[in-house]
């Protein structure tokens, strides 16, 4: 090879190195974005689970309150019947 060929080859190597670095940086950015999206998805699922749990707790509380009201009404009815007797 001539000196000119070596220089050109060296320039090609340098360009290849830059491309390689840029590709690595781009790949790292993509991985970071994917990780961020996965975390956001996981957080979203956690929020949904929390909302579901809260809804279930509210429903249970409402059911318990309804049962207590019914029991209270039944107790009052029994007391009224006892008084009437």
Automatic annotation (TrEMBL):
Annotated Basic and acidic residues bias: 1-15, 22-31
Bias (Acidic residues) ranges: 32-85
Disordered: annotated segments: 1-85
Origin superkingdom: Eukaryota
Full protein name: Uncharacterized protein
Organism of origin: Eimeria praecox
Lineage of source species: Eukaryota, Sar, Alveolata, Apicomplexa, Conoidasida
């Amino acid at each position: 090879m001539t000196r000119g060929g070596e220089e050109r080859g060296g320039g090609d190597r340098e360009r290849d190195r830059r491309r390689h670095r840029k590709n690595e940086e781009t790949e790292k950015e993509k991985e970071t974005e994917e990780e961020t999206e996965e975390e956001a998805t996981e957080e979203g699922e956690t929020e949904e689970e929390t909302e579901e749990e809260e809804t279930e707790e509210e429903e249970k509380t409402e059911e318990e309150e309804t049962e207590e009201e019914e029991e209270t009404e039944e107790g009052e009815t029994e007391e009224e019947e006892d008084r009437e007797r």
